[in-house]
Amino acid sequence: MLAKFGETSTRLFEKYMPNAFVFAMLLTIITGLIAFVWLGAKPMEIVTGWYDGFYSLLEFGMQIVLIIITGFAIALSPLVNNGIDKLTNYLKTPRQVYVIVVLAGTLLSLISFGWIVITCVLARELAIRIKGVNYPFLVACVYFSGGSWVSGLSSSIPLLLGTENNYLIEAGILTEIIPSAFTLGSTLNIAMMLLYVVCAPLMLFILIPKTKSIKQLDDMLVDKTAKNEPSIQDEAYSLNLSYKSVSDTLNNGIVLQICIVLMGLSYIIYHFYTNGFQLNFNIMIFIFLIVGLALHKTPMRYVIAMKRSSSNVSGILYQYPFYAGIMGIMLYTGLGEKLAEIIASVATIETYPFFAYVTGGVMNFAIPSAGGEFAVVGPSIINAVKEIGEGLPANEVSAMISRASLSIAYGESLSNVLQPFYLLLVFPIMGSGIKIQARDVMGYLVLPFIIFFVIQSILVMWIPL
Question: Which of 49, 276, 348, 380 is most buried per CB count within 10 Å?
Answer without folding.
Answer: 49
